[in-house]
Specification:
Layout lengths: L10 E2 L5 E14 L5 E10 L5 E10 L4 E4 L15 E7 L9 E9 L7 E11 L4 E5 L7 E5 L5 E3 L16 E6 L10 E9 L1
Parallel strand pairs: 4-7, 5-7, 10-13, 11-13
Antiparallel strand pairs: 1-2, 2-3, 2-6, 3-4, 6-7, 8-9, 8-12, 9-10, 12-13
Length: about 200
Protein backbone atom coordinates (compact mmCIF):
# COMPACT_ATOMS: atom_id res chain seq x y z
CA UNK A 1 0.00 0.00 0.00
CA UNK A 2 1.18 3.51 -0.71
CA UNK A 3 0.42 5.86 2.15
CA UNK A 4 0.32 9.53 1.34
CA UNK A 5 1.23 10.98 4.74
CA UNK A 6 2.40 9.69 8.06
CA UNK A 7 2.56 10.76 11.70
CA UNK A 8 4.49 8.99 14.43
CA UNK A 9 2.13 6.78 16.39
CA UNK A 10 -0.70 8.28 14.38
CA UNK A 11 -3.24 7.87 11.63
CA UNK A 12 -2.88 7.80 7.88
CA UNK A 13 -5.75 7.75 5.42
CA UNK A 14 -4.56 5.73 2.39
CA UNK A 15 -7.99 5.78 0.83
CA UNK A 16 -11.66 6.43 1.42
CA UNK A 17 -12.30 3.01 2.96
CA UNK A 18 -9.19 2.15 5.02
CA UNK A 19 -7.68 3.83 8.08
CA UNK A 20 -4.09 2.97 9.07
CA UNK A 21 -2.61 3.56 12.53
CA UNK A 22 1.05 3.20 13.50
CA UNK A 23 2.48 2.02 16.80
CA UNK A 24 -0.82 1.50 18.63
CA UNK A 25 -0.91 -0.13 22.06
CA UNK A 26 -3.16 -3.15 22.68
CA UNK A 27 -5.15 -2.48 25.86
CA UNK A 28 -7.43 -5.51 25.80
CA UNK A 29 -7.71 -8.79 23.92
CA UNK A 30 -10.90 -10.88 23.74
CA UNK A 31 -10.56 -14.02 21.62
CA UNK A 32 -13.65 -16.06 20.75
CA UNK A 33 -11.63 -18.43 18.55
CA UNK A 34 -8.14 -18.28 17.07
CA UNK A 35 -9.49 -16.17 14.19
CA UNK A 36 -12.33 -14.17 15.78
CA UNK A 37 -12.74 -11.73 18.66
CA UNK A 38 -11.66 -8.15 19.20
CA UNK A 39 -8.81 -5.99 20.45
CA UNK A 40 -9.05 -2.59 22.11
CA UNK A 41 -6.21 -0.30 20.99
CA UNK A 42 -4.95 3.12 22.06
CA UNK A 43 -3.06 5.40 19.67
CA UNK A 44 -1.91 8.98 19.20
CA UNK A 45 -3.46 11.29 16.60
CA UNK A 46 -2.14 14.68 15.44
CA UNK A 47 -4.47 17.37 14.08
CA UNK A 48 -3.70 20.11 11.55
CA UNK A 49 -2.23 22.29 14.35
CA UNK A 50 0.14 19.48 15.42
CA UNK A 51 -1.83 19.03 18.63
CA UNK A 52 -1.86 15.41 19.69
CA UNK A 53 -4.56 13.45 21.45
CA UNK A 54 -5.03 9.81 22.37
CA UNK A 55 -7.76 7.80 20.67
CA UNK A 56 -9.23 4.45 21.56
CA UNK A 57 -10.98 2.02 19.20
CA UNK A 58 -12.23 -1.55 19.33
CA UNK A 59 -11.11 -3.54 16.31
CA UNK A 60 -13.32 -6.52 15.53
CA UNK A 61 -11.33 -9.46 14.17
CA UNK A 62 -12.95 -11.88 11.71
CA UNK A 63 -11.82 -14.92 9.73
CA UNK A 64 -10.54 -12.69 6.91
CA UNK A 65 -8.43 -10.42 9.17
CA UNK A 66 -4.71 -10.79 8.48
CA UNK A 67 -2.59 -11.03 11.65
CA UNK A 68 1.18 -11.17 11.07
CA UNK A 69 4.46 -10.18 12.69
CA UNK A 70 7.19 -8.03 11.12
CA UNK A 71 8.76 -11.12 9.51
CA UNK A 72 5.47 -11.94 7.76
CA UNK A 73 4.73 -14.97 9.95
CA UNK A 74 1.01 -15.61 10.42
CA UNK A 75 -0.35 -15.20 13.94
CA UNK A 76 -3.79 -15.68 15.46
CA UNK A 77 -5.94 -14.10 18.17
CA UNK A 78 -4.32 -16.23 20.88
CA UNK A 79 -0.91 -14.72 20.02
CA UNK A 80 -2.10 -11.17 20.72
CA UNK A 81 -1.49 -9.83 24.24
CA UNK A 82 -2.11 -6.68 26.23
CA UNK A 83 0.86 -4.31 26.03
CA UNK A 84 1.90 -5.31 22.49
CA UNK A 85 2.55 -2.59 19.92
CA UNK A 86 0.89 -2.96 16.51
CA UNK A 87 0.25 -1.23 13.20
CA UNK A 88 -3.35 -1.71 12.06
CA UNK A 89 -5.49 -1.26 8.96
CA UNK A 90 -9.23 -1.08 9.57
CA UNK A 91 -12.46 0.07 7.96
CA UNK A 92 -13.24 3.77 7.88
CA UNK A 93 -16.84 2.75 8.70
CA UNK A 94 -16.57 3.39 12.44
CA UNK A 95 -19.47 3.16 14.90
CA UNK A 96 -20.41 6.12 17.13
CA UNK A 97 -20.30 3.90 20.24
CA UNK A 98 -17.94 4.36 23.18
CA UNK A 99 -15.40 3.12 22.39
CA UNK A 100 -15.93 3.30 18.64
CA UNK A 101 -15.72 0.00 16.75
CA UNK A 102 -14.45 -0.98 13.33
CA UNK A 103 -13.59 -4.09 11.33
CA UNK A 104 -9.88 -4.96 11.33
CA UNK A 105 -8.35 -5.78 7.92
CA UNK A 106 -4.71 -6.25 8.97
CA UNK A 107 -2.85 -6.33 12.30
CA UNK A 108 0.95 -6.15 12.18
CA UNK A 109 2.59 -7.03 15.51
CA UNK A 110 5.73 -4.94 16.04
CA UNK A 111 8.90 -6.39 17.49
CA UNK A 112 9.39 -5.51 21.14
CA UNK A 113 12.31 -3.36 22.12
CA UNK A 114 14.67 -4.85 24.66
CA UNK A 115 13.51 -4.23 28.22
CA UNK A 116 16.91 -5.10 29.68
CA UNK A 117 20.56 -5.55 28.69
CA UNK A 118 22.79 -8.54 29.40
CA UNK A 119 26.41 -8.15 30.52
CA UNK A 120 28.68 -11.17 30.92
CA UNK A 121 31.99 -10.45 32.67
CA UNK A 122 34.31 -11.29 35.58
CA UNK A 123 33.61 -10.08 39.10
CA UNK A 124 36.09 -7.48 40.38
CA UNK A 125 34.58 -6.93 43.83
CA UNK A 126 31.43 -7.46 45.89
CA UNK A 127 30.13 -4.91 48.43
CA UNK A 128 27.51 -6.79 50.49
CA UNK A 129 26.87 -3.83 52.84
CA UNK A 130 25.88 -1.41 50.05
CA UNK A 131 24.59 -4.07 47.61
CA UNK A 132 27.11 -3.46 44.83
CA UNK A 133 28.69 -5.84 42.33
CA UNK A 134 31.65 -4.56 40.28
CA UNK A 135 32.56 -6.38 37.04
CA UNK A 136 35.10 -5.88 34.26
CA UNK A 137 38.86 -5.29 34.08
CA UNK A 138 40.28 -5.00 37.63
CA UNK A 139 43.08 -2.74 36.35
CA UNK A 140 41.00 -0.33 34.26
CA UNK A 141 38.06 1.54 35.82
CA UNK A 142 37.01 2.69 32.33
CA UNK A 143 36.37 -0.98 31.47
CA UNK A 144 34.19 -1.75 34.49
CA UNK A 145 30.48 -1.79 35.32
CA UNK A 146 28.85 -1.42 38.74
CA UNK A 147 25.54 -3.17 39.39
CA UNK A 148 23.15 -2.15 42.16
CA UNK A 149 21.76 -5.24 43.92
CA UNK A 150 18.35 -4.81 45.59
CA UNK A 151 16.02 -7.16 47.47
CA UNK A 152 14.26 -7.81 44.13
CA UNK A 153 17.48 -8.91 42.36
CA UNK A 154 17.56 -12.67 41.74
CA UNK A 155 21.01 -14.16 42.42
CA UNK A 156 21.60 -17.69 41.13
CA UNK A 157 24.45 -20.20 41.17
CA UNK A 158 25.56 -22.27 38.16
CA UNK A 159 22.70 -24.71 38.74
CA UNK A 160 20.01 -22.01 38.95
CA UNK A 161 19.67 -22.18 42.76
CA UNK A 162 19.15 -18.95 44.72
CA UNK A 163 22.25 -17.77 46.61
CA UNK A 164 23.08 -14.66 48.68
CA UNK A 165 25.25 -11.86 47.25
CA UNK A 166 28.10 -12.77 49.62
CA UNK A 167 28.41 -16.16 47.89
CA UNK A 168 29.78 -14.43 44.77
CA UNK A 169 33.59 -14.14 44.74
CA UNK A 170 36.01 -11.93 42.76
CA UNK A 171 37.23 -13.70 39.63
CA UNK A 172 33.98 -15.58 39.02
CA UNK A 173 32.25 -15.06 35.69
CA UNK A 174 28.67 -13.78 35.93
CA UNK A 175 25.80 -13.04 33.57
CA UNK A 176 23.86 -9.93 34.64
CA UNK A 177 20.45 -8.84 33.32
CA UNK A 178 20.20 -5.13 34.07
CA UNK A 179 18.34 -1.94 33.19
CA UNK A 180 18.82 -0.40 29.74
CA UNK A 181 19.95 2.84 31.41
CA UNK A 182 23.11 3.56 33.40
CA UNK A 183 24.62 6.48 35.29
CA UNK A 184 27.26 8.74 33.72
CA UNK A 185 29.65 7.94 36.58
CA UNK A 186 32.95 6.05 36.24
CA UNK A 187 32.33 3.18 36.38
CA UNK A 188 28.72 3.46 35.19
CA UNK A 189 26.05 1.97 37.47
CA UNK A 190 22.86 0.13 36.57
CA UNK A 191 20.20 -1.75 38.60
CA UNK A 192 20.58 -5.53 38.30
CA UNK A 193 17.49 -7.69 37.82
CA UNK A 194 19.24 -11.06 37.72
CA UNK A 195 22.80 -12.22 38.45
CA UNK A 196 23.86 -15.77 37.57
CA UNK A 197 27.25 -17.32 38.21
CA UNK A 198 28.55 -19.09 35.08
Amino acid sequence: MNYTSSAPQGMIFPGETIIHVDNALIEEVAANTESTGYILIYYEVSDENNMTSMQEIRLNVANNTIIIDEKGISLNMYDLQEGMRIDADFSSAVTRSIPPQSSAYRILVLQEEASFYITTDRVVSVDTINGLLLTGNPYDMYDQMMFNISDETMILDQNGNAIPLEAIQPGQKVRVEHAIYETLSIPPQSPAYLVQVL
